[in-house]
Amino acid sequence: MTTRSDEIVITGVGAVTPHGTGVQALWDGVVAARPVARVDDPDGPKGVVAAIDDLTLHDHLPRKLVAQTDRSVHLALIAAREALSHAAALDGGGLIAAGDPWRVGVVVATGVGPVASVIDEQRRTAAGASRVRPYLAVTMPVNMAAGRIAQQHGLHGPALVVASACAAGSDAVGVALDMIRGGRADMVVTGGTEAPLRPLIIAAFRSAGALSARTDAPGAASRPFDAHRDGFVLGEGAAVLVLESARSAQARGAPIRGVVMGHGATNDAHHPTQPAPDGGGAVAAVRTALSDAGVTPADIGHVNAHATSTPRNDAVEALVLRTVFGPDTGSVPVTATKSTIGHLFGAAGAVEAVVALRSAAERTVPPIANLDDVDPQCAELDLVAGAPRTIDGAIALSTSFGFGGHNAALVVRAVP
Questions:
Q1: How far, in Å, CA of 165 to CA of 345, rounded?
Q2: Distance (Å, whole) CA 242 – CA 86
Q3: DSSP code of 88?
Q4: Rounded CA gap, 128 and 238, in Å?
Q5: Residue 372: CB partners within 8 Å, gap ≥ 6?
Q6: How far is the C-alpha of 218 from the C-alpha of 48, rounded, in Å?
Q7: How many CB atoms are located within 10 Å of the residue 375 CB?
Q8: How far lies 352's CA from each of 23, 168, 169, in Å?
């Protein structure tokens, strides 16, 4: 399948997740269905988390930059550099070398932003206000992930942050798509980042009843669509995609990895945390993405589901997919990346878009971990479990739904 000159293509991807640094580490982990969750802070509010434990920041970033920025920004910077390098868009010094830097934008998603730094510095105030780090004022604004990526690589186009809860990663890609389509940029560095692993955040979501209570078996805690699921696993990570117009990529001879075909976004306007029971808003988002992409449900080769492992959300998502795919529901393979890396909030949609693209490129759908007993409400779906599934289709659907009623969907196509 060739790429049209009016399409918005993906020329590079990058990631830092609980599976490790780099997209290959992410792919290897999800294909192996290897959960990485553990119990965090045994002396505090116990919670199951999926952390990035083997990351030495100073191997990737200057010490001063690490000191001045939040962990969520660190992860975004590492993922962005991999993505831009993958896109063959940097010079030897790490600055943009592809086209006009004034035509290169940044759109980064986050759910809770630099919350870890704010919490850590609040603790310091117990010893007096003078103990607060002097860089806190430039650490805590939520725009810093986008701003720092722009500064590191000399990107002078628009630099924006998208915050639509757990739909934000997908929405960021959608905003970047529209930015290029609208002629406001030739290339956009886009994705999401999140680093919320602090006792206060764990306690907050545990109190809300959203977290899994399987502290005795953390590796089995995230179990999307399983009858015995009891909540999500809190994770951290980042993923970045380099989007550009096909004309831009072709003019510079860049590798084209895929195409962002369509994006859809809606709001349930129903409840602060719970999805609308009929899934109407999510159905509308998915159908908008399909229409934007110019495809039908029959064209979708597989689905990377939002699938948080919470009882109500997974059941509603199953209803959404049954509504969209109708009588063909049982013939569309469905996977759930969160089963191995947990829920990365604002980064989730971007990470899952990267996995969906890779799945379509490899014609391989990773299995859902811990899916031992399918919930009868989800049984009509073709849930991939046990082993990877070989597929034929190059087009994937990725869904994202978040607190506040936010719904988003992306349609991507792999390019051989």
A1: 7
A2: 9
A3: T
A4: 34
A5: 223, 226, 228
A6: 6
A7: 20
A8: 11, 12, 9
Global pTM reads 0.96
Confidence of residue 297 (pLDDT cuts 50, 70, 90): very high
Distances in Å between the alpha carbon of 250 and those of 18, 74, 247? 34, 31, 5
The 3-state DSSP class for residue 152 equals helix
Catalytic residues: 166, 306, 343
Instruction: Give burial (CB, 10 Å; 0-12/13-18/19+) of 283.
Output: buried
What's the pLDDT tens digit per position in 333-349?
A: 999 999 999 999 999 99
User: Are the C-beta atoms of 10 and 248 separated by less than 8 Å?
Assistant: no
pLDDT value of position 135: 86
Query: How long is the chain?
Result: 416
**Token digits of residue 303:** 């689905």
Q: How many CB atoms lie within 10 A of CB 257?
A: 22
In this prediction, residue 29 carries a pLDDT of 98
| DSSP 8-state assignment for residue 169 | H
